[in-house]
Design goal:
Elements: E1 2-7, E2 13-17, H1 22-31, E3 39-42, H2 48-60, E4 63-67, E5 70-74, E6 82-83, H3 85-88, H4 98-105, E7 107-111, H5 124-132, E8 136-140, E9 143-147, E10 155-157, H6 163-174, E11 179-183, H7 189-200, E12 204-206, E13 212-216, E14 224-227, H8 232-244, E15 248-252, H9 260-268, E16 271-276, E17 279-284, E18 293-294, H10 306-313, E19 319-323, H11 332-339, E20 343-347, E21 350-354, E22 359-360, E23 363-365, H12 369-381, E24 382-383, E25 385-389, H13 392-397, H14 401-407, E26 411-416
Parallel strand pairs: 2-15, 3-14, 6-7, 10-11, 18-19, 22-24, 23-25
Antiparallel strand pairs: 1-25, 1-26, 3-5, 4-5, 7-9, 8-9, 11-13, 12-13, 15-17, 16-17, 19-21, 20-21
Bound molecules: uridine-diphosphate-N-acetylglucosamine.
């Protein structure tokens, strides 16, 4: 199992290129199931989650060809509409095959994802939405078994904002008979990115990026070529790493317009942030002030950036509070940050962080994707050496993180251990 070894270093500085967004790439890869024609995707990040999803699609008979950041998919020869447990359990986003399979083939059997480290994360809204579109769905032997001759357009209200739920229903509705209206839909940029890709394939979607999305079903979709949007969470992670170390970095190939809440908080933390087309430049003005924040659906502050800010706040002046409103168990990094000397108390869904002068290096364990990123940031600002264990979580969502951080001057290396 690989580890990252991080030694105390100075301020990060320099330029780094951001990869395509994991959370945009996963749904557009699933969109390939909606057509018999080839879909070519560019800027697909080289991540473990992408490889897992490609394995799942190939298992169904999708022909895939991957060269660097381009993936060409052809779902002409799909021979089975099943997503088995051993593939779904490693990646919850596999649920995104449910809507497309049902819409195009009239049937799907997808293993229930079950709980995960950061919370219960049910998929009831995916199921209810498809039922409202006329699907017959039962749970059998741990699988969602769905059937529908042809889905019918419907008005669907979701009482919780769900990103993959919105994406699943939006994909299903592209081939339904009639008009579907998704109310209280997720406004995340990745949802809009998927809509752009689907429209390029001939879908008729309006309102993406707002909380009411209207989809007029069509008979069939075509192939297309589409470029996946840049990863706003990777961008945010590098910006926080730069801010925490008192750095001066320029991120390239980014979409600053999708990051207002994060950039606002970085400015409040005492960073000077300048955006231009495709670039963000961050330079710390002086000591890091730390920021209190509350996670909520887009355009508010993203839950996927909470852990990274907590690492930065751990060495900021004064006391800050981070409130998590999306997932019920997303403070697992707290224990590990404490091992590095952070002073953090958790009360319900709030973490109270009292800034300390310095963190001290230690061996810590990555527990989930974004928690791992926070441990890496903590390692960059800790005195001495920090070893982050179990970094397979990090490899699910960050492309070449150690290379990119090294490029910015960090002392970080990967150690591959053969023994486990
Ligand atoms: C997506 C992102 C993930 C991010 C999360 C919240 C992908 C692949 N993953 O996850 O990185 O942290 O959005 O921004 O895009 N819920 C229900 N019933 C449902 C579905 C969700 O109650 O049927 C609840 C969840 O338990 C959670 C909330 O809704 O409390 C939001 O979850 P959701 O937006 O669905 O997260 P994901 O789409 O799984």
């Amino acid at each position: 199992m690989d580890q990252l070894i991080i030694s105390e270093g100075g301020a990060l500085s320099g330029e780094v290129e951001v990869s395509g967004a994991k959370n945009a790439a996963l749904p557009v890869l699933c969109a390939s199931l909606l057509t018999a024609h080839p879909l070519t995707l560019d800027n697909v990040p080289d991540l473990r989650d992408v490889s897992t999803l490609l394995r799942l699609l190939r298992n169904m008979g999708v022909d895939t060809e991957r060269t660097q950041h381009r993936v060409r998919l052809s779902a002409e020869g799909v021979h089975q509409t099943v997503a088995p447990y051993d593939l779904v359990k490693t990646m919850r986003a596999s649920i995104l095959v449910l809507g497309p399979l049902l819409a195009r083939f009239g049937q799907a059997r997808v293993s229930l994802p079950g709980g995960c480290a950061i919370g219960e994360r049910p998929v009831d809204l995916h199921i209810k939405g498809l039922q409202a579109m006329g699907a017959r769905i039962e749970i059998a032997h741990g699988d969602i078994v769905a059937e529908a001759k042809r889905l019918k357009g419907a008005r669907i209200f979701m009482d919780t904002v769900t990103v993959t739920g919105t994406e699943n229903l939006m994909m299903a509705a592209t081939l339904a008979d009639g008009v579907t209206v998704l109310e209280n839909a997720a406004r995340e940029p990745e949802v809009a990115d998927l809509a752009h890709c689907l429209n390029a394939m001939g879908a008729r979607i309006r309102g993406h990026g707002t909380d009411v999305i209207t989809i007029e079903g069509v008979q069939a979709l075509q192939g297309a070529q589409y470029r996946v949007m840049p990863d706003r969470i990777e961008t945010g992670t590098f910006l926080v790493a730069a801010a925490a170390t008192g750095g001066d970095v320029r991120l390239l190939g980014v979409q600053p317009g999708s990051m207002d809440a994060v950039l606002d908080k970085l400015t409040e933390a005492n960073a000077q942030v300048t955006c231009s087309a495709g670039q963000i430049h961050l330079r710390m003005r002086g000591p890091n002030h730390g920021v209190s924040l509350r996670t909520a659906p887009y355009p508010a502050f993203p839950t996927d950036m909470q852990a990274q800010f907590m690492a930065m706040n751990a060495v900021a002046q004064g006391t800050t509070v981070i409130t998590e409103t999306i997932f019920e168990n997303r403070f697992m990094h707290v224990q590990e940050l404490r091992r590095l000397g952070a002073n953090i108390e958790v009360e319900g869904n709030a973490a109270i962080i009292r800034g300390v002068n310095r963190l001290q290096g230690a061996t810590v364990m990555a527990t989930d994707l974004r928690a791992s990123a926070s441990l890496v940031i903590a390692g960059l600002i800790a005195r001495g050496e920090t070893i982050v264990d179990r970094i397979y979580h990090l490899d699910r969502g960050y492309e070449k993180i150690e290379q990119k951080l090294s490029q910015l001057g960090a002392h970080i290396r990967r150690h591959s251990r053969e023994d486990s």
